[in-house]
Design brief:
The complex is a heterodimer of chains A (123) and B (110). Chain A has 123 residues and is mainly β. Chain A contains no helices and eleven strands. In chain A, strand 7 and strand 8 form a beta hairpin. The relative contact order of chain B is 0.33. Chain B starts with 8 loop residues before the first strand and ends with a strand. In chain B, the strands form two sheets. In chain B, strands 1, 3, 4, 7, 8 and 9 form a six-stranded mixed β-sheet that branches. Chain B has a three-stranded antiparallel β-sheet with strand order 2-6-5, with no helix packed on it. Chain B contains no helices and nine strands. Chain B is mostly beta strands and 110 residues long. The chains are: A mainly beta (123), B mainly beta (110). At the A-B interface, strand 5 and strand 10 of A face strand 7 and strand 8 of B.
């Protein structure tokens, strides 16, 4: 079945970087954009950016420009999200989410989500 | 701060109908379709409604969505205990080139 499997929880110190992985299976990896969304404890959802797994092209939310890097490995159907210069406010669950097929009414909806990766930033 | 405003909470007894609103500006909701996500406690969000009123396969027809002007609504009819969750609306922000999410509404089944 279609699923996204994310890497495990991370604990980082302020100023460090974290790299979260998201392995896709059950569908043609390069056909669907992948997005990253985060959720701070007790808070709502915040979009971080997206990557086109086919060409590797990325678009990042302005808030994260300069700190976030999204990459992909087509050989393993895996996307990565790296966030640098971590601060306590970056403590959150980070989700990868697949956008629906381009050109359909689903293309701007997230139809498959990973289970999330908890990133804790603490000294 | 989200540009899409939802009521913090909504509640109802089993079998009742509950409606959640989502309001935004004409440049945001007015220009794009609205999606709704359900987030059960401790789990990842799931797509509930897309393109204003479309249900993905597997979503019960108790859930329905609508949009008018700069507002959208999610209705849950025949409320059930398993509907206790957070609900988020979302739409595309062309200036962001990405989605914006609503503030979220927690639904409680009394």
């Amino acid at each position: 079945q279609v699923q996204l499997v994310q890497s495990g929880a991370e604990v980082k110190k302020p100023g460090a970087s974290v790299k979260v992985s998201c392995k896709a299976s059950g569908y043609t990896f390069i056909t669907y954009y992948m997005h990253w969304v985060r959720q701070a404890p007790g808070q709502g959802l915040e979009w971080m950016g997206r990557i086109n797994p086919s060409g590797g092209y990325t678009i990042y939310a302005q808030k994260f420009q300069g700190r976030v890097t999204m990459t992909r490995d087509k050989s393993t159907s895996t996307v990565y999200m790296e966030l640098s210069s971590l601060r306590s406010e970056d403590t959150a669950v980070y989700y990868c989410a697949r956008a629906g097929y381009s050109g359909t009414s689903l293309e701007r909806a997230f139809d498959i989500w990973g289970r999330g990766t908890m990133v804790t930033v603490s000294s | 701060q989200s540009v899409l405003t939802q009521p913090p909470s909504a509640s109802g007894t089993p079998g009742q109908r509950v409606t959640i609103s989502c309001s935004g500006s004409s440049s945001i909701i007015g220009s794009n379709t609205v999606n709704w996500y359900q987030q059960l406690p401790g789990t990842a969000p799931q797509l509930l409604i897309y393109s204003n009123n479309q249900r993905p396969s597997g979503v019960p027809d108790r859930f329905s969505g609508s949009k008018s002007g700069t507002s959208a609504s999610l209705a849950i009819s025949g409320l059930q205990s398993e509907d206790e969750a957070y609900y988020y609306c979302a739409t595309w922000d062309d200036s962001l080139n990405g989605p914006v999410f609503g503030t979220g509404t927690t639904v409680t089944v009394l």
